[in-house]
Prior knowledge:
single chain; 7 helices; six-stranded mixed sheet; 6 strands; Rossmann fold
Amino acid sequence: MTIYFIRHGMTAGNLERRYIGSTDEPLCEEGKALLRSRAYPRADFVYCSPMRRCLETAAILYPDKAPVAVPDFRECDFGRYEGKNYAELKADAPYLKWVESGGALPFPDGEDTAAFRARCAAAFLRVAGTRKTGDTLALVVHGGTIMSILSVYEPSHDYFRWQCPNGHGYASSFSEGILTVTGEL
């Protein structure tokens, strides 16, 4: 099975480098234009986060496919950091402690990072389990979702290795429970 992991297009919050997790932001015009300027691989099936930015991205990239929204593909809830950026948080002691932990600590009033990663990886297995060998899937999701899945199924690299810009992602193959990243999109 071939699986394309595609991060949603840019939002206004992404342009301002804000933590946008549970906020249901739409794509900004620049984000839509960037998506339309790139070529994306074809897919037999499209799955996405139920968040507006992912649904809008899927509609632009795969207008002939009805995406299946997977609730557990939604981005992490950043709690008190939601909607803020580094400039607004750089004097916040709990935030600096979170940064020093390499993102391992839970977000204050938000989602536990280990639980988030496990949620995304389990959702990936459920989706992949519904398809057969030879299918091509596009997963239009969030950066954190991609990093979570790939860090679990490609453990030779850590979580942050799998960061990718908006509208980009990774091509992979999945067979007998083994996910192999084959390239970048």
